Automatic annotation (TrEMBL), chains A, B:
SUPFAM superfamilies: Winged helix' DNA-binding domain. GO terms for biological process: response to stress. This is Transcriptional regulator. It comes from the Bacteria. It comes from Frankia torreyi. Residues 23-155 form the HTH marR-type domain.
DNA sequence: TCCGAACGTTAGGAGGACTAACGATGAGGA
DNA sequence: TCCTCATCGTTAGTCCTCCTAACGTTCGGA
């Protein structure tokens, strides 16, 4: 059924073998955390035939209503050159409609379809599961604290 | 001087435009945090002609003494197929020596040279600066807490 | 009217994390 | 002892994400 190689799992098997200096580097921990997060969400989403970028785009359309591609790009953080293919896939699946903006010929207006809205509800549940799997070792309080700290870092480095 | 394109900075300029649902996803925050971390450490390290992988390898040698390539791979989390090139670069710069293990012809024994040890001291300072730049918006207590939580996640998902 | 900016699009590159496969070597069991 | 299987270093190549460069079109301000 699956032709592509399973996304594997290398990395250290024995965490205690990792030098303390490396183990406590925030840059390294974030990188490794992202790898775990990728592995988990990629697995769940591809099993449903979706991608992270598609999900982010659908959420943004539900949240902010119809928008141009560059607005979607800005809000999702997905590069506008990558957004093209994302919307291509979503349009093909009829989760989204792409029409020229009558007031500005340069823009497309992207709209969420009912099918897209329904699809999004499915993906919402899937994404909730990925959060749970990723944060499994943390208590609810710790999860909230982690998210808060990560938001602060993201906001700081995204600003300007 | 630099022939390669500067690693830019796209992403949302206005964080408030990002849907709340996306903004609070741990998977997304980790991904974005890793991007910021990458940008910062990549910038500082390439300016010094080094890479993250080289640094991790040097640290591991200082911490655990001479080791085979597969041991280094295990301890750093760098894939053994990538370790080849890392050690190639370090050997060429004479920061490291690679000699066949007399007790096991399959292995190489990698040793840190005095030059490598000195190089490592320079990089240590650089890496400290990257941590500081990345974690700038957090207090010392928050930094420690973030690191602790990220370690828990990494340990959990790295185990077995 | 002209110039510069914005928009969507295509092509492509860098870097990280892998898989697959190879030859050589080692170790354990029949 | 012989055979089998695992391990080691190595090469080649894949996938994904993030990002640059350039293009033609369209808009808007001086």
């Amino acid at each position: 059924m699956r032709s592509m190689p399973e996304r594997g799992h290398h990395g250290p098997t024995d965490p205690s073998a990792v030098p303390a200096r490396l183990r406590s580097l925030a840059t390294r921990l974030l990188g490794r955390g992202a790898v775990h997060a990728d592995r988990i969400s990629h697995a769940r989403l591809t099993a449903a035939g979706a991608t992270r970028w598609q999900y982010a785009t659908l959420v943004t359309l539900r949240d902010g209503g119809p928008a141009s591609q560059s607005a979607l790009s800005e809000r999702t953080g997905i590069h506008r050159s990558d957004m093209v293919a994302v919307l291509g896939g979503l349009t093909e699946a009829a989760y989204v409609e792409r029409a020229p903006d009558p007031t500005d010929q340069r823009r497309n207006i992207v709209t969420l379809t009912p099918a897209g809205r329904s699809r999004l509800r499915t993906l919402d549940r899937l994404v909730d599961q990925t959060q749970d799997e990723l944060l499994a070792p943390l208590t609810p309080t710790e999860r909230a604290e982690l998210i808060r700290l990560l938001q602060r870092i993201d906001d700081h480095h995204s600003a300007r």
